[in-house]
Specification:
- The N and C termini lie far apart (50 Å).
- Strand 1 and strand 2 (62-69) form a beta hairpin.
- This protein is mostly beta strands and 483 residues long.
- The chain has 3 domains: 17-167, Sandwich (Immunoglobulin-like); 177-351, Cupredoxins -  blue copper proteins (Immunoglobulin-like, Sandwich), CATH 2.60.40.420; 353-482, Sandwich (Immunoglobulin-like).
- It has helices at 2-5, 109-112, 316-320, 469-473, and strands at 47-59, 62-69, 78-81, 86-92, 100-103, 126-132, 138-144, 161-167, 177-186, 189-191, 221-223, 226-229, 240-242, 247-254, 261-264, 270-275, 278-286, 288-291, 296-302, 308-313, 324-329, 353-354, 363-372, 381-384, 395-397, 402-409, 415-419, 424-429, 432-435, 438-439, 441-444, 449-455, 462-466, 477-482.
- It is globular and about 60 Å long.
- The structure holds copper (II) ion.
- Copper (II) ion (CU) binds next to loops.
- Residues 415, 466, 468, 471, 476 line the site of copper (II) ion (CU).
Length: 483
């Protein structure tokens, strides 16, 4: 663990230096199309995305090369209106086929942006037009969706991600400032000694803990030593400037390919309005947020503690290695402060209605997740119900039916499980019942269990997977079909 402590931040010395603000990723999607020899589409698109190499200045002295959208990473914040059809032209300036996945949208498989669902690829040095009707409203995101396997310069290890805001037209707008915070790690590497960051799940019940643990040596996992919020390491970008009494609406996304993250802002609470873009039944104020890769939280932060604070990762090593942003009140000029929150627990069910109350499902599907440890220098394999992908014809949905999916996590890791093209309703987490929480990604705790209800109302191939890239690549996924 010492190795992380070696990474020192530039810290306050670089505050205010030339850098992009937290809002740098604001909409900039109307750039004129450059054709570069591609065939011109018949009509102008509403949105143009260009996949190409970009540099990201994490600090003035640490500039990385990756792949991004429209010259930046994160890509532009895209804004669409719920129910209003859009045309998106995607140009791929790289040497490999690409997909743009619209995470959280209920769109047909042909445009969802996943090879497994048979969406056509955006060919290398070519383009493809996506046309769909964005729904439902809420904080969605877009990202690449290819396999990376042992190539840490591909797929979600790159900078191909951005926010996608689908507006209903009924946004009450009861806030003074809107900020977008995408949590990231960079320069991933393989190691047999990853740092375990799953604080969650080591507390509480472990209903899926096997009576005899698998003691075979673990395989290679992916780790990182440098973190950011958006494109800046903590202290390297402009602070978020606020005034006493302001209400700040924060849209927070975990765009990591590798790990769940917990964050806090000393002296302040997050009043959680929505998870994965969907309003929660019981908005609550909490001190800590935990997000798995793919998850989003929308929260109001009441600015009522004048000072200069670090909004950042709960773990000292992660935060000190860059996962954070400075929140600076007007006329306050001290060193940014961090204090650990009193309550670090994260519990989805506090935002739901207590108890169950869902209609009885038509069918229940048990899904058991296991890891086959591969040993030093090899990659672990991941099994769903004893098999690796694709589970052809195993998960077949009848349109209109209600399915209760029971996720049994028999591994020593917490997994963010994502269902494409659908939302599901949380029914219980480790036996704690809830209702009314609609999500597209759920963290199933370490040796834990979670149950969700899925209404089969989006015909077409539907990919289900762990949103940790390496787990997905090495078997942790399944394809659902409609009968
Ligand atoms: Cu996983």
């Amino acid at each position: 663990m010492k190795r992380r402590e070696l990474i020192k931040l530039a810290g306050a010395a670089t505050l205010g230096s030339a850098a992009t603000s937290v809002l740098a990723a604001r909409a900039q999607n109307a750039a004129p199309m450059q054709m570069n020899g591609e065939e011109a589409p018949a009509s102008k698109a509403d949105v143009t995305l260009r996949i190409a190499p970009v540099t990201v200045a994490l600090t003035p002295n640490h500039i990385i090369s990756t792949i991004g959208y429209n010259g930046t990473s994160p890509g532009p914040v895209l804004r669409m209106r719920e129910g209003v059809p859009v045309t998106v032209d995607v140009f791929n300036d790289t040497d490999v086929p690409e997909y743009v996945h619209w995470h959280g949208l209920h769109v047909p498989a042909e445009v969802d942006g996943a090879e497994e669902e048979q969406t056509p690829a955006v060919p290398p040095h070519g383009s493809r037009r996506y046309q769909f009707t964005p729904r439902p409203a809420g904080t969605r995101w877009y990202h690449t969706h290819t396999m990376a396997m042992d190539d840490l310069h591909r797929s979600t290890y790159t900078g191909q991600f951005g926010f996608l805001m689908v507006d209903s037209g009924h946004d009450p707008g009861n806030y003074d400032q809107e900020i977008f915070l995408a949590l990231r790690d960079w320069e991933p590497f393989f190691t047999n000694q990853p740092m375990d960051t799953d604080e969650q799940g080591q507390f509480g019940p472990q209903p899926e803990r096997p009576s005899v643990l698998d003691t075979r040596p673990n395989g290679l996992e992916v780790d990182s030593l440098i973190f950011s919020i958006n494109d800046k390491v903590l202290g390297a970008g402009e602070p978020v400037r606020v005034r006493l009494g302001q209400r700040v609406l924060a849209h927070i996304l975990n765009a990591s390919a590798i790990e769940n993250r917990s964050i806090a802002l000393p002296g302040h609470k997050f009043h959680v309005l929505a998870m994965d873009g969907n309003p929660v039944p019981v908005p609550q104020s909490v001190e800590t947020l935990m997000l798995g890769p793919g998850e989003r939280v929308d929260a109001i932060i009441e600015m009522n503690q004048p000072g200069v604070w670090i909004l950042g990762g709960m773990q000292d090593m992660i935060r000190n290695s860059g996962l954070g942003v400075v929140i600076e009140y007007a006329n306050e000029h001290r060193q940014p402060q961090w204090l650990p929150p009193a309550n670090a627990l994260w519990d989805y069910t506090v935002f739901g209605r207590p108890g169950g109350g869902q209609p009885e499902p038509d069918h229940t599907i048990d899904m058991v997740f296991e890891k086959i440890p591969s040993g030093v220098g090899q990659f672990n394999a991941w099994l769903v119900n004893g098999k690796q992908y694709p589970h052809d014809r195993e998960f077949v949905l009848q349109q209109g039916a209600r399915y209760r999916l029971v996720f049994h996590n028999r591994t020593d890791d917490a997994h963010p499980l994502h269902m494409h093209r659908h939302n599901f309703e949380l029914v219980d987490v480790n036996g704690k019942k809830t209702s009314g929480i609609m999500k597209d990604t759920v963290i199933v705790p370490f040796y834990g269990r979670a149950t969700v209800d899925l209404v089969a109302n989006q015909p077409g191939l539907t990919l289900f997977h762990c949103h940790i890239q390496q787990h997905m690549d090495y078997g942790f996924k399944a394809l659902f079909r409609y009968a």
